Amino acid sequence: MRFHTRKWVKPEDLNPNASLFGGRLLEWIDEEAALYAVVQLENPYVVTKFITEIDFKSSAKQGDIVEIGMEVIKFGNASLTLRCEVRNMMTRETIITIDKIVMVNLDKDGNVSPHGKTEVEFVSDRLK
After folding, report:
1. What pLDDT, on a 0 to 100 scale, did the predictor assign at position 127?
2. Is 69 helix (H, G, I), strand (E, B) or coil?
3. Is 49 a residue whose pLDDT tops 80?
4. S-S: 5 plus which of 55, 68, 73, 113, CB 3.0-4.6 Å?
């Protein structure tokens, strides 16, 4: 799994228990999944369709740096299924796992559209 994004846990990210608010973390994950899908499918029109069980394994406190990792599980006809892990960058302790996040490719009119992709591509490989 590649960890693409780091977030610094700031006071505005905390819940009343002084730990990272789960809703904030899910916002970060959803944004990262969308960005990952946009880059892989080379299309800015993608939406989140489905997220499986979210497993909170530990927490983060103010000042911690968390890393968000994504990996492709499956390329569908018009979808991309990802797996996610978020971990504490310093301790490498897993904070959350999500087994499946399904992103759907759309056309400019908002209709489901086949993307024609079958494997992970890196932007650096496209530029050669």
Report:
1. 61
2. strand
3. yes
4. 68
| The pLDDT value given to residue 101 | 98
CA-CA distance, 83 to 72, in Å (whole number)?
Answer: 6
pTM exceeds 0.70 for this model: yes
What is the CB neighbour count within 10 angstroms for residue 31? 13
Contact 86, 94 (CB under 8 A): yes
- Cβ proximity of 88 and 60 under 8 Å: yes
Distance CA 25, CA 85 (A): 11
As to burial, measured by CB atoms within 10 angstroms (0-12 exposed, 13-18 middle, 19+ buried), residue 58 is: middle
Distance from C-alpha of 92 to C-alpha of 67, rounded to nearest angstrom: 9
| Residue recorded with tokens 């999500």 | 98
Q: What is the pLDDT of residues 56-102, one digit of tens each?
A: 999 999 999 999 999 999 999 999 999 999 999 999 999 999 999 99
Domains of the chain: 2-116 (3.10.129.10)
